[in-house]
Amino acid sequence: LVDKRVTSVLIGASSAEQVKVNLKAVGKSPDFSQEELSSIDELCRRWK
User: Fold this and answer.
1) What pLDDT is attached to residue 36?
2) Which of 1, 13, 16, 29 is least crowded, fewest Cβ atoms below 10 Å from its Cβ?
3) pTM of the complete model beyond 0.70
4) How far is residue 45's CA from residue 26's CA, in Å, rounded to a whole number?
5) What pLDDT does residue 3 have?
6) What is the CB-side half-sphere exposure of residue 25 using CA atoms within 13 A?
7) Which of 17, 20, 16, 23 has the alpha carbon at shortest distance from 38?
8) Where are the strands (E) in 1-48, listed by range?
């Protein structure tokens, strides 16, 4: 995100755990609730 023209990053994730790992890689790890993590897992399963 050094380039100011870039306003977001698209990450590839197929599980809630991968979302956590990807967010930690950029130093920002939000506190997802268990319900939110379950929703992320559900969405990822649909698109596999």
Assistant:
1) 86
2) 1
3) no
4) 24
5) 59
6) 11
7) 16
8) none
Residue-range domain boundaries for the chain? 16-43
- What dihedral angle (degrees, nearest 10) is formed by the CA atoms of 44, 45, 46, 48? 90
Burial class (CB in 10 A: 0-12, 13-18, 19+), 19: buried
Residue 16: closest CA among 26, 8, 24:
24
| Amino acid 35: pLDDT | 92
1-40 pLDDT per residue, tens:
555 777 777 777 888 888 888 888 777 656 778 898 888 8
Answer yes or no: are the C-beta atoms of 45 and 38 closer than 8 Å.
no
Question: Interhelix angle for 34-46 vs 16-25, to 10°?
Answer: 110
